[in-house]
Design brief:
This protein has about 70 residues and is mostly beta strands. The protein is about 0% helix and about 30% strand. It is elongated, with a radius of gyration of 13 Å.
């Protein structure tokens, strides 16, 4: 995927875990991606479904997140 601001490459920085009790194969996870050029972050983007970028608000200020950093 490409950044809408500067056309830079986007890299996945977090991937949503499949919730307990959900089928891993049919659950479409979301991810956060960051542009390597301008550092803009796009939140809640499709990870498994292969669609284009979602226009969503920045929710990174919430205390709890459904994303887990797997460093």
């Amino acid at each position: 995927m490409r950044c809408k601001e500067c056309d830079g490459m986007l890299f996945v920085i977090r991937v949503e875990e499949v919730p307990k009790g959900k089928n891993y194969i049919s659950y479409n996870r979301l991810c956060d991606v960051e542009c390597i050029s301008c550092k803009k972050v796009y939140y809640s983007q499709p990870y498994d479904s292969g669609r284009g970028l979602n226009e969503v608000r920045d929710i990174s200020q919430k205390k709890e997140s459904k994303f887990e950093n797997n460093d």
